[in-house]
Amino acid sequence: MSEVSSIVPVAPDEEGAAASNLPRRTAHWLRRNLFDSPANIILTFVALFLLAIVLPAAWGWAVAQADLWGDSKSACVDAGACWVFVRLRLPVFIFGQYPPSEQWRVIVAFALLIGFAVPALRDGTPHRALWVVLLLTLFPLIAGVLLAGGVPGLPFVDTTLWGGLMLDVVISFVTMAGSLPLGVLLAYGRRSQLAGIRTVSIAFIELWRGVPLLTVLFMAAVLLPLFLPNGATVDRLVRAMGALVLFNAAYMAEVVRGGLQGVDTEQEEAAQSLGLAWWQTQTLVVLPQAMRIIVPGIINTAVDFFKDTTLVTIVGLSDLLGAVNQSLKDPAWLGLAPEGYVFAAVVFFICCFAMSAYGRSFERRLARGQGRTM
Length: 374
Prior knowledge:
Largest sheet: none
Mean pLDDT: 86
Number of helices: 16
CATH architecture of the domain at 157-369: Orthogonal Bundle
Radius of gyration: 27 Å
Low-confidence stretches: 1-8
Helix content: over 70%
Order of helices and strands: HHHHHHHHHHHHHHEHH
CATH class of the domain at 157-369: Mainly Alpha
Strand content: under 5%
Structural class: mainly alpha
């Protein structure tokens, strides 16, 4: 036994091996991503030079010389950023003019959104399809009752008081949840063999894609009430979200159509040979494969639209950017535009980066499942 034990090599400690390989992996990463060609070497040093100039000044303004504590603009005595403005106006930036005593309802709605979204977006969740259906059906009903109120125990809160980041999230969720199913229907309609359905679908898609979003919002806010019967009114937020759903559905339809065209026709023929009906073939075979293909397109559309929600300010709705603009008009906070816009930019960047990161993670999981590398 002693001779055998002396011959068998001892496995090295995994942590020690990982630590010893870390410098080598780091050097390999730097060489592959930053120094793999003369052009990249030049670009790397130019970027480092620019960062050396910009970062110290940005750090000094945003952190080192910034003021955070106080209750007025007079508390900002240093040359850096006056984050006192952002700290004191933060409830307005998040909730708009929503009554402070009822803001807990917004927090609960956000928590429910996370609670429904995590199981629906997480791999390996039991009955994941059910969670997706609940996210798109039950959650909007619960969130709508919470935010609008008008039921026993929940006072009514008019949508004119909704604003800030809350409004961006509400508009984005409703628009994406409504435009994706409508986009799927339009994509199938555009590929239909029936000339009437195909013509109507193409006309709808091209009409909305050919009109600027600003024009769509103006039409929903100004022109639509002119066509309503006397005495009939539609809430301004509802009008804006309806127009955004129709506008975004046209773009989503083209994204879905690209995915449908990317599925081999043999897949559909094989399903039909097994005796599946057309709708079974599409829902069980073709559409799931198409959805895997269009994940980058859907994420890109969602990120782009989330940023476009700031355009609702032109029709009198006050989202995060609108709340910042209104706060900057307060005589007590004049001259603090950089701080307000930097805060809005950081919030939008974090939200958009989170969506993009999830999209990349989802793509990598799909690639591993199909035996591909990305």
